[in-house]
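User: My collaborator sent over this chain with a note saying "see what the structure looks like." That's all I know about it. Can you take a look?
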Amino acid sequence: MELWFSEFHTPDVKLSIRVNQHLYSKKSEFQQIDIFDTPEFGRVLTLDGNVMLTERDEFIYDEMITHVPMAIHPHVEDVLVIGAGDGGVVKELTRYESIKRIDLVEMDSLVIEACRKYLPENACRLDDDRVHIYYNNALRFIRRCTHTYDLIIVDSMDPFGPSEGYFTKEFYGICYNALKEDGIMVNQQGSPFYQHDAQELKRSHRRIASTFPISRVYQAHIPTYAAGYWLFGFASKIYHPIDDFHPENWQKHHFKTKYYTPRLHVGSFYLPAFLEDLLTEVES
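Assistant: Without extra context I'll predict from the sequence alone. Here is the result:
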């Protein structure tokens, strides 16, 4: 008997992945957590039936949400990561020796527990001395912070259920206040391809653009996410993601990456016409 996992991207479209073994399944206080072992994508983490990461393509998401802002801000020392309990974003951040503190706020301790056991390659740097894990609601946590962080990475689920509060104008305003005078915020903005997702993107971008003086959207191609096409939001108090990008500074780290490159950095901000039209409509 064959076992398959399926995630509906719309009522008429779904992604199905053949499963070798269902490794983990537990209902936490917040969500249903499952981890599957699959022949094509390796181990797959899902929350409430939605793919969060696969071992095969997680590097794309983690590199793009991390290295883009790190390549622009010249002196990141204090970082706040919201969500990302799997540890992938933290793993990328710990490659930077200049970072002194990484505060990880994850509301669900079972996500971290499961990933430590079943996705150790992702979670391998959660015990770095610079990493401080807080099991808390991010809204409550960040309200106490003023001019604290150089960079905030919001690695939340889509704007439904427990993550809905991370896409509000109030939340973006709190993030703005928690950043230092030259701080940057990046967040995942979902897929613009399907109509429902595009509407959520417009709503989120409108709120960010009304909060930060510089707000841009950039893209990556992630096979297991909706339509294989994913967006990130870049919001900054002073830095422009292209005008203030100096690739030679980032290249001094001599990092080996699997997706991100300085050329791709620039190219990721050049969007297709339908998306430019959508965002122009929001910004005007």
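A starting point for your reply to your collaborator: The chain is about 30% helix and 30% strand.
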